[in-house]
Each structure stands twice: as structure tokens, then as C-alpha cells.
């Protein structure tokens, strides 16, 4: 699966500027990543994508978003870097490990990875991030 890997940040931007230390929950990681994407000088456009559905006025489910073209499941954050490259970041809790084959979570992660790989194939960057620093490493590639 796509991963931030060992890419080192290139423009001196630090997690401390965005949030401080990484939290212990996925929601804290997500808040930190959102803070970075709002303020990082390499980010031109950033969107937070919520997944799931809600009940419409008629009681029928309404999807928060629908991928019309492309592959996989849209990640938590998508956008454009100032150099025109797209990015796709999926936030995970700090102790995240990829799910085991055959589980519902495994299938969702595989679809998220397909979206990330599609972004990379278009010349963009992306990955699964367990920390703010991993997200910074991705956008500074």
C-alpha cells in the first residue's frame, strides 16, 4: 500500500508549526493534517472528504460524495499542490496496521489505496498517514 515512507521534508516546514505533537487518535491526526493543509506553502487547494450517507428529506439515503470517474474510494483529503500536482491523503490512527485479508476494513483500505495509486499515476503524491509528519513528507515530495 502507498505509504509516506522515509521521505524527508524538503522546505523546513514542521509539525510543530501546524499543531505540535501528534495525537493518539485518528481524529487528532486528522485535525493536525487539516491544519497543515490549511497553512502549508506548497498546498494550493485542499478538501476534506467525508464518507458515508445521511437521510434525505424523504428518508432515502443521500451520499456525501460520489466518484463519477476514476477508481477506488476517495481519501480523507484531496487537493492540488502549487506546482499543479494532485494529492490524496488518507489519515489513520498512529498505531494503524493494514487490515487482514477478507475483512470489510481490508476491502475499504484496498479501495483507498487504488485511489491513491491513481493519483500517483497522474503525477501526484499520496499515501496513508499515521502522523502529521507523514502528511508533510507526502506534500513535500
Write up what this structure looks like:
The chain is an alpha+beta fold. 31% of the residues lie in helices and 20% in strands. The protein is built from 4 helices and 6 strands; from the N terminus they run ααβββββαβα. It has helices spanning 15-18, 26-39, 104-121, 132-139; strands spanning 43-48, 53-55, 61-63, 77-81, 86-91, 125-129. A 4-stranded mixed beta sheet has the order 1-4-5-6, sandwiched between helices. A two-stranded antiparallel ribbon has the order 2-3. Strand 2 and strand 3 form a beta hairpin.
Q: Structural class, judged by helices and strands? A: alpha+beta
- Structurally, the number of domains stands at 1
Sheet-strand content, in percent, reads 15-25%
Mean pLDDT: 84
Structure in a nutshell:
Helices cover 31% and strands 20% of the residues. It has 141 residues and is of the alpha+beta class. The chain has one domain.
List keywords for this structure.
6 strands; 31% helix; disordered N terminus; 141 residues; two-stranded antiparallel sheet
Question: What is the strand and helix layout of this fold?
Answer:
Elements (H helix, E strand, L loop, with lengths): L14 H4 L7 H14 L3 E6 L4 E3 L5 E3 L13 E5 L4 E6 L12 H18 L3 E5 L2 H8 L2
Parallel strand pairs: 5-6
Antiparallel strand pairs: 1-4, 2-3, 4-5
Amino acid at each position: 500500500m502507498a505509504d509516506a515512507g522515509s521521505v524527508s521534508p524538503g522546505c523546513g516546514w514542521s509539525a510543530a508549526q501546524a499543531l505540535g505533537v501528534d495525537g493518539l487518535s485518528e481524529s487528532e491526526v486528522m485535525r493536525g493534517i487539516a491544519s497543515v493543509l490549511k497553512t502549508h506553502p506548497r498546498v494550493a487547494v485542499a478538501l476534506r472528504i467525508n464518507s458515508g450517507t445521511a437521510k434525505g428529506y424523504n428518508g432515502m439515503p443521500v451520499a456525501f460524495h460520489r466518484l463519477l470517474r476514476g477508481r477506488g474510494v476517495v481519501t480523507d483529503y484531496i487537493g492540488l499542490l502549487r506546482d499543479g500536482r494532485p494529492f490524496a491523503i488518507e489519515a489513520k490512527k498512529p498505531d494503524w496496521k493494514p487490515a487482514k485479508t477478507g475483512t470489510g476494513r481490508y476491502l475499504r483500505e484496498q479501495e483507498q489505496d487504488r485511489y491513491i495509486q491513481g493519483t500517483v499515476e497522474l503525477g501526484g503524491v499520496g499515501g496513508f498517514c499515521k502522523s502529521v509528519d507523514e502528511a508533510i513528507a507526502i506534500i513535500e515530495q
